[in-house]
Amino acid sequence: MNSYQEFAKYLDQLLGGVHAVRITVSGYMPLSVEEIGSSGDGYRLVSLCHYGEQNGDLMRDPDIAFLVHTGPDGAAAEPVSFRNDYLGIVQEVYRYDETGRRTHVVPSLKQELKEFAESWFANLKDQGFFGSTAMREIL
């Protein structure tokens, strides 16, 4: 199983059959997982995000959007954007034209987000977000 297939499995497990959920584990920032629409070329988008608060505003720390598609080997979830509001960072792997067709890719960012997502999912498992004691709130 490749990383993108694992990411799809993890996202489905965290969502647990709903469209949006907040998962809380004592000692860690809550984790929000939600379907946020579709990409310019029609694929499902799922956001994985920790939110903090600054001056009464919710701040993404971080937020990764995954593009979910089904191929011959099953579902795959590719990380396609990264956002951290505290640092003022917004990065997109793909650019689209006005018709929704992909026009550009940033290969170095694509690899960087894949590696970050692998590490993040490992941390989320270690922290208990996949465990039975995690508190789930359907949004």
Task: Walk me through this protein's architecture.
Helix content is 24%, strand content 47%. It is α+β, with helices and mostly antiparallel strands and 139 residues long. It has one domain. The strands form 2 sheets. Strands 6-5-4-3-2-1-9 form a 7-stranded antiparallel sheet. It has a two-stranded antiparallel ribbon with strand order 7-8. A hairpin with a 5-residue loop joins strand 2 and strand 3. Helix 1 crosses helix 2. The longest helix is centred in the last third of the chain and has 21 residues. It starts with a helix and ends with a strand.
Throw out a few tags for this protein.
alpha+beta; globular; seven-stranded antiparallel β-sheet; 139 residues
Compose a concise summary of this entry.
The chain contains two helices and nine strands, in the order H-E-E-E-E-E-E-E-E-H-E. The chain has helices at residues 3-15, 107-127; strands at residues 20-24, 31-38, 44-54, 57-71, 74-84, 89-92, 94-96, 102-105, 135-138.
Count of discrete structural domains:
1
Number of helices: 2
Radius of gyration (Å): 15 Å
Distance between the termini: 31 Å
Instruction: Report the sheet-strand fraction.
Output: over 45%
Poorly predicted spans: none
Instruction: Give me the side-by-side strand order of the main sheet.
Output: 6-5-4-3-2-1-9
